[in-house]
Amino acid sequence: MQSIESEAKIAQEYLARIAKDAEAKFDEHLPPVKDRPCRLHEAMRYSMFAGGKRLRPGLAKATFDMFGGKGDKIWLATSALEMLHTFSLIHDDLPCVDNDDYRRGKLTSHKKFGEATAVMAGDALCIHAFEMMGKTGNAKAIEVLAHLLGTYGMIGGEMTDIECEGKTVDLEIVDYIHYHKTAALIEASLLVGAMLADASESDMEIIRNYGRSIGLAFQIVDDILDIVSTTLYDRRTWQGRRV
Fold first, then answer.
1. Which of 17, 25, 65, 77 is the least crowded, having the fewest Cβ atoms under 10 Å away?
2. Is residue 243 in a domain?
3. How many domains would you assign to the chain?
C-alpha cells in the first residue's frame, strides 16, 4: 500500500501537469494584446498569468478524467474557471473592497493599470469565461457554474463578508461566508468536469458533497496561513483571503 506521502506526491505531480497544460490553453483562449483594446487585453493577461495554484482547473480536469471524459472541451472549461477566479481576485483587491497593493508578490491589477482598467479587466474575464463555457455545448454545466458564481454562490459570500466586516458574527455566518466565498467555485469546478464527462446524477451528488468539504477545508487552511505568515510587501494579517 502506498504511503500517504507517496499518494500526495503523485497528486501534486498530476495537478502540476494539468496546471502546465491549462496555462498553455489560457494563452490560446485569451484575446491577444495586439488586438484592441490593447491595454484591457494586457491587463487581463497580466492577472491570469500572475501565478497561483491553478487548483480549479486541476479539479475540473481530474473529475473529467475520473469519469472517462473524452475530447478537448474540458480545456475550454479550465480556462473559464481560472478566468472567473481571476476576475474575483481583481475585484477583491480593489480599494473599495480589500484595498490590496500586492498579490502573489506582484502589483495588483488596479495598482498596475489603474482602477478603471482593473474593473473592466475583471468584468471582461467574467464575460469571456462564459463565452468559453458556451463553446463546450453543455447548457447545464453553464447553469450550474453561473448559479455557484452568483448571488447564491461566490458573489453572495463576498457581499456577506463585506456586510460583516468589523462585526462579531456567529459560526453559522462564518460557515456561510466560507462556503459561498471559496467553496462554491471549488465545488463548481468539480461539477463542471464531471458534467462534461456525462457523470451520473448519483455521482454528481457525491462530487457536490466532496467539493463543499474540500472547499471549506481549503479556506480554513488558507485563513491560518494568512495569520501566521507574512510577505515582503504586506505584513498585515487578514482573514478570508482567497488564492
1. 17
2. no
3. 1
